[in-house]
Fold this sequence. Notes:
The structure holds two protein chains of two kinds.
Chain A lengths: L2 E5 L3 H13 L3 E5 L2 H10 L4 E4 L8 H10 L7 E6 L4 H9 L4 E4 L4 H10 L12
Chain B lengths: L2 H15 L8 H14 L5 H9 L3 H11 L11 H17 L5 E6 L6 H13 L7 E8 L2 H9 L1 E3 L9 H7 E4 L2 E4 L1 H4 L2 E5 L12 E6 L8 H13 L1 E9 L12 E3 L6 E4 L22
Parallel strand pairs in B: 1-2, 1-7, 2-6, 7-8
Antiparallel strand pairs in B: 3-5, 4-5, 8-10, 9-10
Amino acid sequence: MKTCLIVEDSSIVRKMARRILEGLGFAVVEAEDGVDALVVCKRAMPEAILLDWNMPVMDGYHFLCHLRRMPGGDEPKVVFCTTENGIDHITRAIDGGANEYIMKPFDKEIIAAKFQEVGLIELPEPSLI
Amino acid sequence: MTPSDYEYLRKLLKDHSGLDLSADKQYLIESRLLPLSRKCGVPGIGDLVQKMKGGSSLIIAQVVEAMTTNETFFFRDKVPFEHFRDTIIPEMLRARANRKSIRIWCAAGSTGQEPYSLAMSLKEMGAVLAGWRVEIIATDLSNEVLEKSKSGVYSQFEVQRGLPIQLLVKYFKQNGELWQISPELRAMVQHRQLNLLHDFSQLGAFDVIFCRNVLIYFDQDTKINIFGRLAKTMEADGFLVLGAAETVVGLTDVFKPFPDKRGLYRPSGVRAASSGGTSMPKIAAMAGR
């Protein structure tokens, strides 16, 4: 089973994201800010990271920069998930090593589509009718 | 739903999800949340709001999820666009090398995600298509959705459904919460209002027809009739792309499945049987999309 780390300071959004990700077959780990998330990654590198931008202590962008310099830190697929929806933020995130970018609000389909986009999941084949 | 329930939900959705509902979206809340309230075992939205105020974060999460679900998306199902890039266009580049032109029809173009996905796919193929004339004709029953398609303006939700972030950055221009596809891509798509139940032979012959997720709304005889007329309007070596849940198998032999490529079909050369016919179906009602 693949592990997804959710880095997000809102407990409601974490809960919502957890429901969606567990539904997609991930084991979920949570972190409340970037520093917390780095600790999790040092312990065991997850396959996927769903990453908020604005958080106390260390924001998502700085977490990403630290992560990508860690041993094995280029492995996880990082998907930003943030209310920052300006093209400048998106460009900065991609340049910083993010694999995909979700502008909040999100739903199950957006997460599934973006995770499929970066090869984390395969969507089920629809049946013929 | 009382005005105070509405305000409560509006604020909560804004705070938790960024979804910004205007003052007149009661219908949207009702259509999305009534099924959820039934699932939670309460009769109405007022009761659901009470549960939320009681601090049930699970219900709050479900409410946010229900309210932020949308329907249409770019590169829907992905596979057809891989067929387009890896099978259809390479084959057309060989078969049309003299003519250097390809005509593509999106027979249920809807709000434009499919034709623009094809346009982006073509742009991404780059130099191999230099000097080629590629026409994309998007038709739909509804003028309203065609207008939206022509404008090429999409909400933040819509541009996140299936569109890789790199393509968003490359081909769209941001205007607040809205994103507009570039004039260059808009110019690649022509729009026409069309009911598939009516004669469409005036559109001319096509090399490629995308006819996805529209035939499911028709009865079997009508499907057979439309397949017959699609075959007539297609070049003998053309390609038909159907929706993931659609097939010609068991309905008609005017198209045959392309080996190992799900959803991809080619004309078989067999003429439509007279019972299925290629005349207009006797249906008075307008077809739903």
